[in-house]
Amino acid sequence: QVQLVESGGGLVQPGGSLRLSCAASGSIVSINTMGWYRQAPGKQRELVADIKSGGTTSYADSVKGRFTISRDDAEKSVYLRMNNLKHEDTAVYYCNVDGLFRSGTIYYPTRNFWGQGTQVTVSS
Question: What one-character-per-residue DSSP string does 83-111 give?
Answer without folding.
Answer: -S--GGG-EEEEEEEEEEEEETTEEEEST
